[in-house]
Amino acid sequence: MTLAKLRIGQLGLGQWGGTLLRAFNSTEGAALTTACDADRRQFASLASTYPKVEFVTDPAELLDSPTIDALVIATPAETHYELAKAAILAGKHVFVEKPFVLDLKQAQELVELADRRSLVLMVGHLLLYHPAYVELKRRVHQPEFGDLYYLTSERCNLGRIRSNENVMWSFAPHDVALILWILEERPQLVRAVGRAYLQPHIEDVCFMEMHFASGRFAHVHTSWLFPRKVRTFTAVGSRQLIDVDDTQLSNKMTVVEVTSSIRPDLAPYEDRYHYELATFRRGDTLIPQLDNSEPLALECAEFVQSIRDRRQPLTSGQASLSVVDVLSAAQLSLRTGEPVPLD
Q1: In this structure, what are the phi and psi dihedrals at residue 154, rounded to the nearest 5 degrees?
Q2: pLDDT grade, residue 40 (50/70/90)?
Q3: pTM greater than 0.85 (yes/no)
Q4: Which of 122, 143, 208, 295 is the most exposed place for a label (fewest CB within 10 A)?
């Protein structure tokens, strides 16, 4: 028996919205039937490419349509809450692009609302579907990696400046989602510092720290005032260092084997110029072969399949609550200049 295709509508056809339209239009088991954007100019380059898609300017045409099963929301972040809530109340499954929302209470409300109505609510934390990061998570939990010490990431470039969200809310959801997913624990403490140069109260550069009960540590650097595009994520362990550079077309992952030793027999007062208290040696460097599947195709397929299976997707609204929680604490730290403990 062939299942009927899931009928999908999309709100928002900006730069990333056009990419989502292409991906969902190609997802097996789904039919993207209607797309909406208030700016008709967004239709110009899409209508001829997708002749089976109806393009409209009023979101109500999608929200009120009995023929649409699910909605993709790819609008500015400040509109996510109202649109996602309206979609859930209309009985639609919802895919929301990151950041989920900009307020923790709003995130909690949406998750509870979708749960009460037995609807799938998914957030576009794309990198959890990226083969390089899936492989990184697998490797850091293997014995040969040793003890995981810390994670660090840089997500920087020049441009694409927002006016309703700072660089942390715009860029860091990717990295925070990755860190929580890899470590499988919630931070005890969050600290953030940043500076707003171009617009009042909209930080252009931010440095965030996350401290965990296990003793692990994570650091995230985000900036849209940076001379080059940087997309790196590094895991440091006692036996291996793993680095992912997502700007590379190939060889995205590098695994470096290391050995270290400490001389506990030396007393603190001994001449440290003549003794090595610790040694650190670099071993073999490996470049693993990775699956070349497109992360966005995997993400779209997960949304469709989770609806069919009546289950929570990997990047569910519930999972994204933890990301919003951390970012909200970091935002408070930015404003007060103090570290913020998480209950």
Answers
A1: -130, 130
A2: confident
A3: yes
A4: 143
